[in-house]
Amino acid sequence: MEEETFDEILNGLVRVYQKKKGYRFSIDSLLLAHFVSLKKRTKFMDIGCGGGVILLILAKRFPGTGGVGLEIQENSTELARRNSRVNNLESRIDIVQGDARHIKNIFRERSFDATIFNPPYRKLHSGRINPREEKAIARHEVKGSLKDFLNAAKYLLKPTGKVFTIYPAKRMVELIYLFRLNGIEPKRMKLVYSDIASDAEFILVEGRKGSREELKIEPPLFIYNQSRKYSQEMCGIFNELSRFPTDGGG
């Protein structure tokens, strides 16, 4: 059996098994989980959920919601199920193995209030593809692209349903174009920088299906300060995520 680690994050409020040498969640997952906002009784889906970190955080942050994770890889699907169990969230999180490109064969149309995804960032023929399949699928558009995820979101979402995602800032034009192509209007946006001297690294976007044009651009987020330590804003995000309700297991 491949070696694993068992990690406690956010002051121990979430515990996760991860492959020691496989894909491991990074700070962009935490940024996206913090950016998401869900109302009570929301049914949401994480498309390409990996080990389920975003699902777990959202289920804990918003106890009145129910989540589904869709994951194409068998190993990651099983890992997400184990992580759901170890966090006592089996009653509120369902993990389904499947391909977002064939979403119509898996779920009913218009069955979710919100979709969340942290898609592969790199085009299939750009850069070196990792020899480990798990990492390759997570980083390159090997088995799904932003276009595929948005097509799935369009199918899954109820009218006025929401989409939340994070994507490289340098591909922002493509992201906005594909949002609108699928009838999803960008409503809220935040640029994320490594530090004050760097170019934008990520873009966080909330879109709404069938909405009118009106975009709110939030203040930028700088991950590090001049001392290369986490910025005050970033520490605030960690603190806020660490204070969410812990009664999400019922």
Topology at a glance:
Layout: E1 4-9, E2 14-19, H1 27-35, E3 43-47, H2 53-61, E4 66-71, H3 74-86, E5 93-97, E6 112-117, H4 133-139, H5 146-156, E7 157-168, H6 172-181, E8 184-193, E9 200-209, E10 216-217, E11 221-222, H7 232-242
Largest sheet: 9 strands, mixed
Number of helices: 7
What series of H and E elements makes up the topology? EEHEHEHEEHHEHEEEEH
**Structural class of the helix and strand makeup?**
alpha/beta
Q: On the 0-100 scale, what is the average pLDDT?
A: 89
Task: Report how far the terminal alpha carbons are from each other.
Answer: 32 Å
The count of DSSP E runs of length 2 or more, i.e. the number of strands, is 11
Strand content: 25-35%
Silhouette: globular
Radius of gyration: 17 Å
Return residue spans where pLDDT drops below 50 for at least 5 consecutive residues.
134-142, 246-250
Defining key terms:
single chain; 250 residues; alpha/beta; 9-stranded mixed beta sheet; 11 strands; 28% helix; globular; disordered C terminus
